[in-house]
Every structure is written in structure tokens, then in C-alpha cells.
């Protein structure tokens, strides 16, 4: 009898772990990427590869591109890991519509290899983590190219906070001055270079 109870207990644990891997986590976060397909994403999905738990923007002039979540989000905490290649350039769409330039219609946070020579003369608000051409992020907290970075973005009303590898690199409490929508799609904005993403998850906050 004890053996049967032990087996049932272990099966329950395994079932719970499988549920967490595919859907809602114990801390309220929900995965946006199933690790093997583009399910839940729209846009230029052919420019991305979903394989082995990693979502990668593909290199090439006509690859990468813009992909968005099917669902719109307003107030949330978004977490993900990313790995850059030399000279990589991508972007994180925040509260964006599906049409138009994301940084003009919503918000775009840069995903960039700050160390690349070609980017040394950009404006401060064009480097990694910055809200593109709006608010500059602190620099110096990216891991070396080829290593995984951890990033978190919190948006709640007019408040935004971006944390990179445990360091808050951007915080602003008055996004209202930019007159952008309070809700929209999230996404990745590739520019023809390879960037890998994994463990993409979100927790929605109250209105």
C-alpha cells in the first residue's frame, strides 16, 4: 500500500511539473513560447526558428523581421533570456499595434550588441534597453556576446522599469508624455541578425 501511495505521489509531482512547463508557473507567470513552434505569434514568423526551447531570429536581409504576440497586453511583467551574436540588432515591441513602426506607434526597447564598432556613434537612446529614441538606458550590464542575458520589463500604467542581469537600467514613471496606447502587442523586431531567446514568460498585472 505504501508503495502505491509513493508512486501516486511521484506521478502527481511529475504532472504538476509538466503543467508548469507548458502553461502557468507557480508564481503566476505564463509562458509565451512553447519551445518548438510559433504558436501564439503572428507577423514575419518565417524569419524565426523555434527549436529546442529557443526562439531565434534568423540572419539575412529578408529574415528576422517583426513578430508579435497574438494577444494584447497592458500592465505586465515580462521576463526572458537572450543571447547576442557579434553586431546583433533586434528590438522588443511593447504595447504596439500590428501595423506601423513600433517605436512610433507604441514602444520599442533596443536589443543590441553595444560593443560592436558600427554602433559606437549612436545616440544614447539607441543602445540596449533604451526606449528607442525616447529614454536612454544605463550601459555596462550586458554579458559578453555569446552568453545568455536575463531581462525583465515591468509596465504598469505610466510606469516602466527594465532590469538587465539584476540591474535596473531604465525606469520612468511618466510615459503619458509620449501619448502612446495603454495596451498593445509584445514582440521581437529583427533586423537581419541572429539573436536567440528563451524562457519568455509574462505575468499580467491588474488594471
Summarize this, please?
It contains two helices and 13 strands; from the N terminus they run H-E-E-E-E-E-E-E-H-E-E-E-E-E-E.
Describe this structure in words.
There is one protein chain. The protein is mainly beta and about 210 residues long. It has two domains: about 1-25; about 30-205, Jelly Rolls, CATH 2.60.120.560. Helices cover about 10% and strands about 40% of the residues. The chain has two helices and 13 strands; from the N terminus they run H-E-E-E-E-E-E-E-H-E-E-E-E-E-E. The strands form two sheets. Strands 1, 3, 4, 6, 9, 10, 11 and 13 form an eight-stranded antiparallel sheet that branches. Strands 2-5-12-7-8 form a five-stranded antiparallel sheet. The chain is globular, with a radius of gyration of 18 Å. Residues about 5-20 have low confidence and may be disordered.
